[in-house]
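tool=predict chain=A
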Amino acid sequence: MADPVLPTTARVLLARTARAQQEGRAPSLVAGVVRDGGLAWSAGRGDVAEPHDDVQYRLGSISKTVTAVAVMRLRDEGSLHLDDPLDRHLPGTPFGDRTVGQLLSHLAGASAESPGGWWERTPGGSLADLDLGQDDVVLGAARRFHYSNLGFGLLGELVARARGTSWDEAVANEVLRPLGMNRTSPRPVAPAASGLAVHPWADVVLPEPEHHAGVMAAAGQLWATLADLGRFAAFLLGDTGDVLDPGTLAEMTEPAGVDSAAAGWSSYGLGLQVIRLDGRTYVGHGGSMPGFLAGVFVDRDEQIGGVSLANSTAGVDPVVFGLLTDLRAAEPRVVEPWAPSPSPVPLDRLGVWFWGPSAYVLRAVGGGLLHLGPLPGRNGRASRFEPRSDGTWLGRDGYFAGETLRIAADHLNLDTFIFTRTPYDPAAPVPGGVDEGGWR
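tool=predict ok
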């Protein structure tokens, strides 16, 4: 059970939520903040049944992240690889040469929507019913980010066939039940909010339809309560239990496809949105279906998350990011005290190194990692590195992610770049050699 926020913080969070519900004219809105494994604060505004955290709302595209977790479980088991062509696991579609990883990150060039009637308002059928053709391939592979509901419909079918059951049962067995999300389901189970559209020029509402989307369910079918969505936020913060290895979750949060049309810094990992906003990085997913809006985003650095659910087709501004800003300001996280720790390499290997005439610093950082980057105030490439069993170091992030660092007494070898103790040290193996005349 998470410790509740302070009363003064609760007031600030409630004020923001109340304003979002009123100004967005949402028939109902429930929202909360997550830390220490659960909801630390939540509230319901508008026509909400009690308890407000046990009312189901439709999650929309947050379902995609649940589908992605199921796919990554198959990867971790060795049943598939992210570089596998789709045809290897789901033959007979026009996307056979596109990879599983490209589908997860919206880089497969699949049409944004499935053919036929608008799937969000039309009962769905099987994959065969879609009758996919070359017209549904709208871009070349890995050409650009192109958000695709159809792509996640295909991934849901992949999961179903791999598990020998329906997508509904596969994600329930693989993700939802193990996480304790027992009030999350593919169709509404009372108490559940009714999906509504709010008239743009009058304070009247219109019921929205609800149905099972068939093969497209994996893109937006799930319903959940605020409590269950809070549990999923805790999962995204690293409380993965036996569902997923924490390293796999971290892999999912690495940006793969970038949406250049989005305001600000917005990207996509493997089934997760990754957003840079006001100097913070948020990981999670938004969701919308006719009659509903949803959001779950976490700040993994600060170990806090926000969740929101509303029964309105449009008009409600995302409240999650504001709640997290308020929480950080009202109750800033007290970090762990610094304490000495042994260096993972001899001390004489640390310090200033030069790539040509540019000065860099190699230093030990927490968790047994190394960091190589430019001197403070200088521009340049920077990355962290983790140790390998053979004595080399693997780039974890930044420009040198995935590259190998080799450390010698007189030089560093990083992906053919040679760093030396003095600029262009003639005693080191500098590519192209060093002019015999030296500096002059």
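The chain has a mean pLDDT of 95. The CA atoms of residues 158 and 259 lie 25 Å apart.
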